[in-house]
Amino acid sequence: MNLHVNRNLALETLPDALRQSLTLAAERDPRAELAAQFIPAGSRVLDLSFGTTLERSLPNGCGYRRCDVDTEFPTKAAAKSDIIVMLGTLEQIADVESLFTHLRFCKQDVVLSYCATDRCGASERAALGFANHLSFYDLALLFDRYGFRIECTAPIDDTQTLMRLTPTDRLMPVAPCSVAVVSGNDDGHFGDRLGYHMINALLPGEADVHHLTFRTLNEARAKYDLVVLGIGNSMFQPLLGDDVLDVVSRGKAAIGIFGTQYRELIPRTALDRLIDRLDTWYARTEDDVLMYGRGRKNVVHLGDWLIDQFPMNGPCDDEPLEVSDDVRANDALDRTIQTIQRHKQVYSAGLHPLLCALTSAELAAYAEQPSAQMPDIVSGKFRSMLIDIFGRTYPEKQFFMVDRDAVTRYKARVHRNVAKVGERIDAILRNVAVAAG
Length: 437
Known about the structure:
With 437 residues, the protein is α/β, with parallel strands linked by helices.
């Protein structure tokens, strides 16, 4: 019978739940609990450990099988597993080369603990009866020799270390790269905010991305592997100065993703110099290509890539919606898109709210944006976009019927083009890495 002393110094029997809790606490295995943090839920686990309590620490959905390795390696069981665990095992194996030969052919991740000579002296190891004596350096050589890399590690205590090994063929080589992205994102415009997410999603995961704006060009680093000028925004005077050219020249390669506006005010020589510096200019509209890219091999008609952010949708609200010159910077992008797409009739003074509306609305209208310096000159970007999508423009401030089929065709074409931009960026960065090597 289990007894304990209560506050009144009377003897009473432990409740069953408390007794079970104390028993489990006494049997806790911190090493096994830590190892469980390295194991995905749903894994088929082969445990080659000596007397651990791993099974009860495993995450939900795991299958568990335990085998001994003191006779022969359980090849069939290993072939049916997703991950192999060895806690306190490796130190007891005299022939580690033979063990890792078997592990190599299993081609599974391995979670193991080891007490390296760096943390445990000869006398302690002898007292513990260890069969081998490897340092961290020896372990690294052993793992490499049999096609494993250390994916992550964690200390168990003062002497033991837990490691997760992954077969080398599962580890893709990663070549870090630096990318500068120059945009007007600090203005908080709807299109610039969307473009920020577009370019981040398109760049490779290993890219170190340095976002600059036209106001922070002085913060540019000395060099980059790639400079991306624009995120679907418009270039116009005065954004074509020497400071922009200087940043573009700091990249081993450079591409542009932008359109143009207020073309009557653009110095042709300044834009030509910029395009000359770019490996590829992904122009937003056909007008851009015809006016500034004719005869050039480095100019491609991309389309307005921000349409990729707007799913084809059906409106449900009969009340007309008027969108001002721009959406407020603190408005959530997803909610803004949903609000615009809910209305059957949309009037917009902003280019990209209009583009968003075209993917859902039945009727649409727009208001052009006159130049602040010369009010009789308008941006021209609405006209260029409408011709790209519908093959014609429409008078401003007059509602027109949206040709849904034309919008669908345009969206599908731009989506394919965006995928090609991603492939091109990957190819550029691979070539830069090869040249650097």
